[in-house]
Design brief:
Number of strands: 9
Structural class: alpha+beta
Distance between the termini: 103 Å
Number of helices: 8
Low-confidence stretches: 1-16, 25-30
CATH architecture of the largest domain: Alpha Horseshoe
CATH superfamily of the largest domain: Tetratricopeptide repeat domain
Strand order of the largest sheet: 3-2-5-6
Order of helices and strands: HHHHHHEEEEEEEHHEE
Mean pLDDT: 81
Radius of gyration: 51 Å
CATH class of the largest domain: Mainly Alpha
Helix content: 40-55%
Oligomer: single chain
């Protein structure tokens, strides 16, 4: 491999003549002669690549040389591209660039430079391998390490760096196939990477959203009857206490001299009213409590059974509980 200082010197020597000659007809040839503006832009990128290479910025230098060659495909840039790729350990790309350099440069390359390039290519054979990849489907896209590598059938075996690589082959309507492979120096392997058609969907999948269950009438009745029971019980307790107090006051008035008949009648009516109300609310508490207990402990009826409607009637002297279908 040429040393960095030697390569830099050789590169610098090519600057003035970079755009003097275009590549010969072929894959790298331009479709039309480049304009002066394009040539100037290519030369600027080329010179920027030389400066970056001298500073050891090999990745950035590679970008500048690639751009210069895209603008004006002069074979001289291929030498620079090959040397930078060697520094970046991109041995397969370096091999392709240097082979293209010898092919396009032909007799324009002097003997000393040609020998140097051939030595580099010999070194690169120990760091590259070839892989003949085939597939059962034509028109499938092949990718190596995430980079496009062609479409099946590939025109020639893939030239790859030694080491491990991730292969992928894909095509619309087919299941993507991926595989890892490890290549050693000078390997020449073959690989059949077939892909299968995607299976047609069995049909639309219907997803039923769960329905929110609304509270039933029975649940409402349970809560209502327990609440009524608590209210009636509290009312019966309060009115009962007041009724007992009124009855005691009536007894006191009866034993007190000078109490008029009107005062006794009034006190008696008040005591009777309070005690009667306490009895009614106590009875209502018993009835509603019984209903609440029954509804709580009993199992809910089926949906197809006729619904019952319960009614609670509270009168001045009685409490009545009725049901209707």
């Amino acid at each position: 491999m040429a040393s960095s200082s030697l390569v830099a010197a050789l590169l610098l020597g090519t600057v003035p003549a970079y755009a003097d000659e275009a590549a010969p007809a072929g894959a790298a040839a331009a479709t039309a002669p480049p304009t002066e503006a394009t040539i100037k832009e290519a030369r600027d990128h080329y010179e920027a690549g030389l400066a970056l290479y001298s500073d050891g910025e090999f990745q950035r230098a590679a970008i500048e040389f690639d751009r210069a060659y895209e603008l004006v495909p002069n074979y001289r840039a291929l030498y620079n591209i090959g040397q930078v790729r060697i520094q970046l350990h991109n041995y397969a790309r370096a091999t392709k660039a240097l082979k293209a350099y010898l092919e396009q440069g032909g007799s324009k390359i002097d003997a000393e430079r040609k020998k140097s390039v051939l030595d580099d290519l010999e070194m690169l054979t120990t760091r590259t391998a070839t892989l003949a990849l085939t597939s059962n489907e034509d028109g499938a896209d092949v990718a190596v390490d995430g980079e496009p590598a062609g479409t099946t059938p590939l025109p020639e075996p893939l030239l790859l760096d030694t080491g491990e690589h991730r292969l992928a082959i894909s095509k619309a309507g087919f299941v993507t196939r991926e595989l890892s492979i490890t290549l050693a120096s000078r390997d020449s392997q073959s690989l059949q990477l077939d892909i299968q058609k995607e299976q047609a969907a069995a049909g639309p999948v219907v997803v039923m959203a769960p329905q929110t269950q609304q509270p039933s009438d029975r649940t409402a009745w349970i809560w209502g009857t327990w609440s009524a029971t608590a209210a009636f019980a509290a009312g019966a307790t309060v009115t009962g206490i007041l009724g007992i107090k009124a009855a005691n006051e009536l007894d006191d008035k009866r034993s007190t001299l000078g109490t008029s008949r009107e005062e006794l009648d009034s006190a008696q009516r008040r005591a009777n009213t309070l005690l009667t109300a306490a009895d009614i609310m106590g009875g209502a508490a018993i009835v509603t409590g019984s209903i609440a207990l029954y509804l709580t402990l009993s199992k809910p009826g089926g949906a197809d059974k006729p619904k019952k409607r319960a009614e609670l009637n509270v009168g001045p002297r009685a409490v009545m509980f009725t049901t209707r279908f």
